[in-house]
Write a structure and sequence with these properties.
The chain is of the alpha/beta class. The chain has 19 helices and 17 strands. It folds into 3 domains: 72 residues, Ubiquitin-like (UB roll) (Roll); 119 residues, 2-Layer Sandwich (Alpha-Beta Plaits); 261 residues, 3-Layer(aba) Sandwich (Fe-only Hydrogenase (Larger Subunit), Chain L, domain 3), CATH 3.40.950. The termini are far apart.
Length: 589
């Protein structure tokens, strides 16, 4: 432990703690634009300067020392910080009114806090072509302040390396290698760069106008579905507590907006479990050489697999994601049942994820209904924007239920939104399929939580099923290396069944989720592990209190197989609910 004083107040912290972190223990806010709890400090912005024993130093990257005397703010430090902001603003476009981050921009808030109300320096903003090539995220380099958060997340957390620094000095910018388009880079569209960006430099590709156009067209029958993680995050945009489950309010709001039917992606999650558990049981009992099997619900993980690990394609579950399954059934099963021309149906999904925008067009398999299964995918942030545009009082709207037959779900479907949830749900049903008996304890505490790689072993009929769960795409490489090494040496597989989610914490922290608004200018507007846990708790509590927690007990799913699909894993199910994968180059150019 180290003792020091900050603003004449004594504090004791662990050795290695930064001055910035030590100050926060005393509720002292030191401004910063580049610091974020998810990434290592870069000291890039220069806003967090403090006086240490008379010398000016950057607090985010300076470790504490015994007896250190720190002044966090004085008249000179205030003026230096104002000058740093003025320099940043001199290289930033004056387009706040038309920026997607207006009102939720850390630079904007900082400028207001430091009373910068004029433009005393010449504007040197460079104009760059806006990169919307992925149709998932949009990169506007002219709004970049070179804080480096996106680079840190992309390289060191996700291990994708789609973004890096190019050039030096005043010509420095952040871009894919050699300035190529994001679409041509290793980018997997996870959106974590967008989730961590403090300005409007990286945002989601906005599809809200497409949805409004569909709602205005009387000849279009609009169907909407919401993902598990949306319900525990949407409220943050309207002043609710983190993780509060607002499923009923979201259903009611979507109806008020004008959607003809409101379904739930959780139904698709239960259906995914039936198909995925069936697939795993067949592999485990009849074709062990095809193990291990990876889950396939995360499109950013699918993108990474096809680019980096195409040798693992035979090990990937062929199940589509829950949103795709609901879309395919809306334009076949539901259309037939209701006598609606599927050509007139448009399906909109509300997802916590920017990569879902890519998933809906990733292959011809996404047209198994004869039409594009999902027509538009919007993020939680986009839905919040639309609710505000519609003038709906989200806080006070009364709760409603989803429509059937694609709205019923179990607790197992709900937990898809958090790391370990897909695996837990699949094991519950796989155990029943193998033994004919229900699993006694439905929870697997070993694969809960935010450890990057989690492992457990489940014994089914005397056979050990080795499980791994990885979240944060950077953690998957270690698992894949262990599998490859075992195969090369002819050794026993380290795992039989593996869940991968691209974002730390799972979908609750997806690239399209609300940006957490900090308390004061010193708090980053980005998700923290505390918020990840609160959102996950909202889903886990719903599962714990659900009438049924097993996907194979979903009555609407049972009816679907009886009336339309036939057997799980059968020919009809494969046609509508499964897909295939192809090896692709990491770089297109």
């Amino acid at each position: 432990m180290v003792k020091l004083t900050i603003d004449n107040r004594e504090v004791e912290v662990d050795a290695g703690t930064s001055i910035l972190e030590a100050a926060r223990k005393l509720q002292i806010e030191i401004p910063t634009l580049c610091n974020h709890p998810d990434v290592d400090p870069s000291a890039g912005c220069g806003m967090c300067i403090v006086r240490v024993n008379g010398r000016i130093m950057r607090s985010c990257c300076t470790p504490v020392a015994e007896g250190m005397e720190v002044i966090s703010s004085d008249a000179e430090l205030y003026e230096v910080r104002r000058m740093v902001l003025k320099l940043l603003l001199s290289n930033h476009p004056n387009s706040c009114l038309s920026c997607a981050r207006s009102g939720q921009c850390e630079l904007q808030e900082m400028a207001n806090t430091f009373n910068i109300i004029d433009a005393p320096l010449p504007n040197l903003t460079k104009k760059y072509e806006i990169d919307d090539s992925t149709k998932s995220i949009v990169f506007d380099n002219s709004k970049c302040i070179l804080c480096g958060r996106c680079v840190e997340v992309c390289q060191n957390q996700q291990n994708v390396w789609a973004l890096s620094y190019l050039n030096r000095g005043l010509a420095t910018r952040i871009t894919p290698a050699n300035g190529i388009k994001l679409e041509d880079s290793p980018c997997i569209k996870c959106g974590q760069c967008s989730a961590h960006c403090p300005t409007g430099a990286i945002v989601e590709y906005d599809d809200t106008e497409k949805v409004w156009a569909m709602l205005r067209n009387p000849d279009i029958y609009t169907i909407v579905q919401i993902a598990p993680a949306v319900r525990v995050a949407i409220g943050e945009e309207f002043g609710f507590e983190f993780g509060e489950n607002l499923t009923g309010k979201t259903y009611a709001t979507l109806r008020r907006m004008g959607f003809d039917k409101v379904f739930d992606t959780n139904f698709g999650a239960d259906l995914t479990i039936i198909e995925e558990a069936t697939e795993f049981v067949r592999r485990f009992t009849q074709a062990p050489e095809s193990l291990p099997m990876f889950t396939s619900c995360c499109p950013a993980w699918v993108d990474l697999l096809e680019k980096y690990y195409s040798d693992m394609i035979p090990n990937f579950s062929t199940c589509k994601s829950p949103q795709a399954m609901v879309g395919a059934l809306a334009k076949t099963y539901y259309a037939d049942k209701m006598g609606i021309d599927p050509a007139k149906i448009k399906v909109i999904s509300v997802m916590p994820c920017t990569a879902k925008k890519w998933e809906i067009v990733r292959s011809e398999d996404m047209k198994s209904s004869g039409f594009q299964d999902i027509d538009v995918s919007i993020t939680t942030r986009e839905l919040a924007k639309m609710i505000k545009q519609a003038g709906i009082d989200f806080r006070n709207i009364k709760e409603e239920e989803a429509d059937n037959p694609l709205g019923e779900y179990t607790g197992a479907g709900t937990i898809f939104g958090t790391t370990g949830g897909v695996m837990t749900a699949a094991l519950r049903t796989a155990y029943y399929y193998i033994t004919g008996q229900e699993l006694g304890n439905l929870d697997f505490k070993e694969i809960d939580g935010l450890e990057g790689i989690k492992e457990t072993t489940v014994t089914i009929n005397g056979n050990d099923v080795k499980i791994a769960v990885a979240h944060g795409i950077g953690n998957v490489e270690e698992i894949l290396c262990r599998i490859r090494e075992a195969k090369e040496k002819g050794e026993e597989l380290p795992y039989h069944f593996i869940e991968v989610m691209a974002c730390r914490g799972g979908c609750v922290a997806g690239g399209g989720q609300p940006r957490v608004i900090g308390s004061g200018y010193a708090k980053p507007w980005g998700i923290t592990d505390k918020i990840r846990k609160q959102r996950a708790a909202g889903l886990l509590n719903e599962d714990l209190n659900a009438k049924t927690r097993l996907s194979h007990h979903n009555e609407s799913v049972k009816t679907l197989y009886k009336e339309y699909l036939g057997e799980p894993g059968g020919e009809n199910a494969h046609h509508l609910l499964h897909t295939k994968y192809v090896a692709r180059d990491k770089y297109k150019c």
